[in-house]
Design goal:
By secondary structure, the chain is of the alpha+beta class. It has one domain (41-48, 55-181). The chain has helices spanning 7-19, 37-40, 171-181; strands spanning 56-61, 66-71, 78-83, 91-96, 105-112, 115-126, 130-137, 152-156, 160-164. A hairpin with a 3-residue loop joins β6 (115-126) and β7 (130-137). The longest helix has 13 residues, at 7-19.
């Protein structure tokens, strides 16, 4: 004998299943992104150009332990910073200044002559300007070598693909961050 499923259950089961979709996450990422104010404006919708003019350059601010990439004298498209070094736990924070939906997560693909880095990124609020993509990487992680390659290409949802010039002098940022992550050893007496 077969048992019939109540028609009421058939109507309300999809509604109950969909009611959990789209609910806001309990913990919002509001981690500060430390980059100079000149580049922070890139998170505003009007500041993210659809076809930004070139040429693109890397700018390295050693005192800020940060480097950013984009058109000269314009909002940055990408920033790399060494955060947490003062606490002895440095991390490379990689921010792609492209609009992201609140609560979204994705993989930021960076491809170069030294391999491919697939960095998990999350939408992170930047002030009142909106959300951008942000991920972190241990500077001693072998995957960080990809950033030192030639002819990088990077893509993230909603940001399209950007072609990055080699870091040049800005590559020192990754090396310095890695050194800060390495515990100092004392010679044995």
């Amino acid at each position: 004998m077969t048992r019939l499923v109540s028609p009421i259950l058939l109507i309300f089961a999809p509604v109950a299943a969909l009611s959990a979709c789209g609910e806001p996450a309990a913990d919002r990422r509001t981690t500060p992104v430390r980059v100079p104010l000149a580049v922070a404006s890139a998170a505003t919708p009007s500041a993210i150009p659809t076809a930004p003019p070139g040429p693109y350059v890397w700018t390295h601010a050693q005192s800020a332990r940060a480097a950013w990439y984009g058109p000269k004298d314009a909002p940055a498209l990408l920033a790399i910073a060494c955060e947490g070094w003062e606490k002895g736990a440095p991390r490379l924070a990689i921010v792609r200044y492209a609009r992201a939906d609140e609560g979204a997560e994705a993989l930021f693909a960076i491809q170069g002559s030294k391999g491919i880095l697939r960095l998990p990124v999350s939408a992170t609020r930047v002030g009142d300007a909106g959300h951008v993509w942000r991920g972190e990487l241990d500077p001693r992680d072998p995957r960080a070598e990809v950033l030192l390659g030639n002819g990088l290409k990077a893509t993230v949802p909603g940001g399209g693909m950007i072609e990055l010039a080699p870091l040049g002098e800005a590559a020192a940022l990754i090396a310095q961050c890695g050194v800060a992550a390495t515990p100092a050893t004392t010679p044995a007496l």
